[in-house]
Design goal:
Layout (H helix, E strand, L loop, with lengths): L1 H44 L1 E12 L3 E12 L2 H21 L7 E11 L5 E4 L10 E4 L6 E12 L5 H10 L4 E8 L4 H25 L4 E14 L24 E13 L6
Antiparallel strand pairs: 1-9, 2-6, 2-7, 3-6, 4-5, 8-9
Helix pairs in contact: 2-3
Length: 272
């Protein structure tokens, strides 16, 4: 009986020891999981994100303009004939100003039917004295066809841009949709703007890190957004009877800009 009681006590003790060992065995995993949470949070909070900006301006070296003709006629055949004749004259005038074939590209060609609504007219008719005339609808007009043909012209000698516009109008152009000034090969300007943006981003990041008593570490990520722009003087809807003047065109400057979003890791603070 004593032996049985002793064995029961031993069994209970063994169970308690096993449970304690099991609990102890789980604790390292729990401790490891708890330790990883601060590490992940640390990775998120020990960075600084900045937006660096860079812009470079230069005088443009090319100009572009979209110009053409629009004619109307009672039939498609007549409208097309007139349009072809005027467009041939226009392209010849453009080439005469030194524009190469490769710098003349068709931008739009369209044929549309323009219907004209009939207008009511008052017709005289025999009537009793003092009565008004009879109102009747005039015969419906079939309308006319409109043919439009425009080309996009690259002007490589921008000093001649105004003269070319005048020549185009004199040759019959009655649609001129504006002039834009550009840099023909903007890659060098983009690289310069990018370098300025990188310097600006680092200066901003260093200033922010300094407020926290920290220094910058490695770059975590970089993303870029490029833009450009410049003056676009408009010369719209010129008429063929507007010749005899010189069109003033001011190219000004065009700019290339870029923005860099840079994420820096913050270096660990030095031990005091």
């Amino acid at each position: 009986m004593l032996r049985s009681h002793f064995m029961s006590k031993s069994f209970v003790v063994a169970l308690l020891v096993g449970a304690a060992a099991l609990a102890t065995g789980c604790s390292p995993a729990a401790s490891q999981s708890a330790a990883t949470v601060p590490s992940e949070a640390d990775a998120r909070t020990n960075v600084v994100t900045v937006l660096g900006k860079g812009e470079v301006s230069r005088k443009p070296d090319i100009a572009r303009s979209t110009m053409g003709i629009a004619v109307t006629a009672p039939t498609v055949a007549e409208a097309s004939r007139l349009a072809n004749q005027q467009m041939t004259n226009l392209i010849a005038a453009i080439k005469k100003e030194g524009v190469a074939d490769k710098d003349i590209q068709t931008a739009n060609f369209s044929i549309n039917f323009e219907r004209h609504e009939p207008h009511p007219v008052v017709m005289s008719a025999p009537a009793k004295p003092g009565s008004a005339g009879v109102t009747a609808a005039a015969p419906a007009r079939a309308g006319q066809y409109r043919v439009s043909n425009t080309v996009r012209v690259t002007i490589r000698d921008i000093e001649k841009a105004g003269r070319l516009l005048d020549a185009a109008v004199a040759a019959g152009a009655n649609e001129v949709w504006g002039v834009s000034f550009e840099i023909d090969k903007p890659e060098a300007l983009e690289a310069e703007a990018r370098e300025k943006a990188a310097q600006d981003a680092r200066a901003r990041a260093e200033a922010l890190a300094k407020t926290q008593g920290r220094t910058l570490g490695e770059v975590v990520s970089v993303s870029e957004s490029v833009g450009g722009g410049g003056p676009r003087p408009m010369y719209s809807m010129a008429k063929a009877d507007m010749g005899g003047f010189e069109t003033p065109v001011a190219p000004g400057e065009v700019s290339v800009s870029t923005q860099l979003e840079v994420v820096y890791r913050l270096a660990k603070p030095s031990a005091q």
